[in-house]
Amino acid sequence: xxxxxxxxxxxxxxxxxxxxxxxxxxxxxxxxxxxxxxxxxxxxxxxxxxxxxxxxxxxxxxxxxxxxxxxxxxxxxxxxxxxxxxxxxxxxxxxxxxxxxxxxxxxxxxxxxxxxxxxxxxxxxxxxxxxxxxxxxxxxxxxxxxxxxxxxxxxxxxxxxxxxxxxxxxxxxxxxxxxxxxxxxxxxxxxxxxxxxxxxxxxxxxxxxxxxxxxxxxxxxxxxxxxxxxxxxxxxxxxxxxxxxxxxxxxxxxxxxxxxxxxxxxxxxxxxxxxxxxxxxxxxxxxxxxxxxxxxxxxxxxxxxxxxxxxxxxxxxxxxxxxxxxxxxxxxxxxxxxxxxxxxxxxxxxxxxxxxxxxxxxxxxxxxxxxxxxxxxxxxxxxxxxxxxxxxxxxxxxxxxxxxxxxxxxxxxxxxxxxxxxxxxxxxxxxxxxxxxxxxxxxxxxxxxxxxxxxx
Length: 456
Description:
The protein is of the alpha/beta class. It has four domains: 2-124, Response regulator (Rossmann fold); 129-236, Beta-Lactamase, CATH 3.30.450; 238-312; 314-456, Heat Shock Protein 90 (2-Layer Sandwich), CATH 3.30.565.10. The protein is built from ten helices and 20 strands. A five-stranded parallel β-sheet has the order 2-1-3-6-7, with helices on both faces. Strands 9-8-12-11-10 form a five-stranded antiparallel β-sheet, sandwiched between helices. Helix 6 (238-277) runs antiparallel to helix 7. The longest helix is centred in the middle third of the chain and has 40 residues, at 238-277. The N and C termini lie far apart (74 Å).
């Protein structure tokens, strides 16, 4: 006795009884597939002689599903229920039945006729090891794998990036969840691969609406020596690009520091050389020469420390501003200084970078105001401020962030420059103005604030 299997998607398979519509020498088994996402597993891993679909499954039209299935199983009979035969496209081999109820006679008759004409299809035999290998790749690889048919419609999509059923049977041009420019570019590439048999290898793309970098490769899909579509893989390389950008910013920072340091070295050496020329007549110039050399040593130490600091990947965590402020404050020589936290907030940031940023601003207050400085910290709209009770800013406020700028003879002038570089690296913005108390007020904005904060 010939045994045949009917796979019913998205409906109660027990309602279908096609046995009366097939010859007695055939045994028919009806198997259900409740979720559309497991359809390809069912077709690959089990023997299927006829596929039954409702007009729509999980928001996906039956005709789109059929086009995807036909790319792999072109001879598999498909019966669509609740759909008018007049609406079936001429290029699609589908049997449509007006009745949506699987118990209707018309459905059983359509399935019986499909089984009688079905023959030996790829879906009606056990899978090869190669087929199960490819299915495992699509199911488990942590990247976006896809196959498209001759018309660039998605035939199969991996489960990593999105729900496969959202794409089956449609082209990138028709997938309206993507921006139009992105859809058009992807579809042009697809047509080029299929029509010109071109290989598109390792194309980097940036998608601004989700701030994502990807690397895409598409190649022709050959069957019996002819192109029947394409296969592609798209990998998310956002983290890699962020590391590259961070390394580039660090390199640019070090180059700028090297140039500025060379300028400072030249100035100090010229001072020392000039004093050496009159040292015999003016012995007191030895102290000036010694001070210049000490300043050179300070500059070298600062640049070496910055250049050799380990650049770790940013790990964002949630923390109360007051908690991190007190941790940094307690690590500094603040015996005579006082700290007040006016208002608190919870931030989401890279704690190592934010700690260094706070340390530089606190050091700046201690150096320019003195060991008895009073510092106030508080929340702003999307960040925080740090204010001191000193004499304020001498000169143009924006100059305090310039590398090498300082009003203290023993200071290298790199601290606030480094602080601003940290802010830029994390897309923060730091500004300085006069505080209400007359001192300096540094405002840092653009930080992520945790919402619905619980009590600290």
